[in-house]
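Chapter review: from sequence to fold.
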Amino acid sequence: MKIKTEEDLSCKEPEVIIRYSQKDKQINRIIDFLQSFDMQIKCAGDNAEQMINILDIYYIESVDKKTFVYLENAVYRTDFRLYQLKNKLQTYGFVQISKSCVLNINALDSIRPLFNSRMEATLKNGEKVNINRNYLNGVKNALGGDKEV
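The token string follows.
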């Protein structure tokens, strides 16, 4: 893949052009990533609402019917339900890894096997989350299907 950048002082906003001979999974992932660049969800911060960019989210977890959004060094609460966020974000690299957790594949650093056919995901910030065996195929598909899990 070649990447070209060009400065144009008359340009009012960035423009991205993707040229390809055949649209495949890689091209679709690039498009999804670019579309997610400015997407945000509303969360509750310190006594105020805060808009969180989805690219900054590491994972989303539901605990006691409350939904929490985990970033590299912060945790926020949101009024969205886990299933709503999963449905909204699945095309942007988010995949369900357990009944109560959705992971941003882009925040993934490594995966290692555990007992009982489960896996442990280490995130870029060093945090670890477990992948339930019932969700392994979803993770494999989110990684491109051709990568070994």
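Two observations follow directly from the output. Strands lie at 40-44, 49-53, 57-63, 66-71, 75-78, 94-98, 101-104, 108-113, 119-123, 128-131. Residues 25-36 form the longest helix (12 residues).
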